[in-house]
Write a structure and sequence with these properties.
The chain is α/β, with parallel strands linked by helices and 411 residues long. 39% of the residues lie in helices and 18% in strands. Helix 13 links the parallel strand 8 and strand 9.
């Protein structure tokens, strides 16, 4: 087995065969010795010397980059966004001009302290910019590294927090969760995702990641059959209900589509209309509410697709009354015993599960629960499920080329 030094943990490439738990524990120890161990030394030096004057250019357009533009305002100078496809259109991204990679290289020649921050979501794009900087000696960090180096958790949305401190403080609990997992692939996935969050290197999860098209219905942990009844929390634009239709070849029995984002609600209304003349029409219902532990009203940001979410307390005062949404309990929504509860609700999965306690106890549905929105979800969600249904088997899969879509499966 390899010796897990700092360079092997932050690289991952060339390790060959290794034991995932041992790699994870080595990463924990490195983090405890120096939380910035995964941040490139040159980037650390530039930030230390230049502080808020440190020049940064974002490499690629993504939601991650959008988060950084706002979070880094008092930490560094974010100058431009590199996108060769948009650079000549006179467009902007969150108020910053797009530039070409050629212009970026010219800037780096003029200022050797220029830091490129690779915030791309997809592996191909990440590798392109990594190579561009590596081959020309340009200081480079990725999203996770710059968040840690600049200590941005206090100003970032919880969905893009640095998990390092939580993982290092709850290491034994993650090992207990691994022992609770039902299959070796789940164990490897858990340790790989955690080692990514400690090292900032996506190579760790890329080696266990499944395609996005496998999310929920192709986990490999169980099969779907005719008569499935799904509570679709975070129905978005209907992808999960569509996936259920495909997985059951149209023989599903019920879908409660729960979605508070008014933009998505309009899309889902159109989705349902498409089936008006089919047998599926009576099987689908739309519930334009959020789900939680108790009935309430909540301030909501309506963005459409996968972006909308309940606003944190710090932003609630600025939310107009018209943007508030009703919060209901799943126990009060369902009018039949579901066989599946699926959740992707931007960090509010645990309260929503608590609002489904009666249903879970009585029907024991399969639970397909996103566990990547909060740094504590991978531990807190299984711990709570075990208090009401300790006989569930637990699986874990990671379904994208980035940090999103790590999903817990209870079956």
């Amino acid at each position: 087995m390899p010796s897990f030094q700092s360079d092997t943990i932050t690289s991952r490439l060339g390790l060959g065969a290794f034991e995932p738990e041992q790699a994870f524990l080595a990463a924990v120890e490195l983090y405890r010795q120096d939380p910035l161990f995964a941040v490139p030394a040159r980037v650390r030096d530039i930030l230390a010397r230049r502080g808020a004057d440190a020049p940064i250019v974002l490499l690629g357009r993504s939601d991650f980059g959008g988060n950084l533009i706002h979070a880094l305002r008092e930490k560094a100078r974010v100058l431009f966004v590199v996108d060769d496809f948009r650079a000549h259109r006179g467009q902007q991204f969150h108020g910053l001009d797009y530039i070409s990679s050629d212009r970026f290289l010219e800037m780096a020649r003029q200022d050797p302290d220029l830091i490129g921050v690779n915030a791309c979501r997809f592996d191909y794009s990440r590798r392109f910019f990594d190579g561009l900087c590596r081959d020309r000696g340009i200081a480079l960090a990725n999203f996770e590294q710059i968040v840690r180096a600049c200590d941005l958790n206090e100003v970032l949305d919880h969905r893009v927090h640095d998990w390092g401190g939580v993982i290092a403080s709850r290491t034994a609990q993650y090992q207990q969760l691994a022992a609770r997992m039902a299959d070796p692939y789940s164990v490897e996935t858990l340790y790989s995702v955690l080692t990514f969050h400690l090292s900032g290197n996506p190579e760790w999860f890329l080696n266990v990641a499944r395609p996005y098209s496998t999310l929920y219905v192709r986990s490999g942990l169980f099969a779907f059959d005719s008569g499935e009844k799904m509570v679709d929390c975070g129905a978005s634009i209907g992808e999960s209900t569509t996936a259920l239709m495909h997985a059951t070849e149209g023989s599903f029995a019920r879908s409660w589509m729960i979605e508070p984002d008014r933009i998505n609600v309009a899309t889902l209304q159109g989705f349902i209309r498409k089936y008006a003349d089919t047998a599926h029409a009576a099987k689908m219902s739309l519930h334009a509410v959020a789900v939680g532990e108790e009935r309430a009203r909540a301030p909501f940001e309506h963005l459409g697709h996968h972006g909308g979410s309940v606003l944190p307390p710090t932003r609630a005062d600025a939310c107009p009354e018209a943007d508030y949404v009703a919060v209901e309990r799943i126990d009060d929504i369902v009018d039949d015993a579901p066989t599946i509860i699926k959740m992707d609700i931007e960090g509010f999965e645990l309260p929503a599960l608590k609002g489904a306690e009666r249903t879970i106890r009585a029907a024991r549905p399969k639970l397909l629960v996103s566990a990547y929105h909060r740094s504590t979800d991978l531990l807190d969600i299984p711990a709570w499920i075990d208090t009401i249904a300790p006989d569930y088997r637990i699986g874990l899969r990671h379904h994208t080329e980035d940090r999103w879509d790590t999903c817990l499966y209870f079956y």
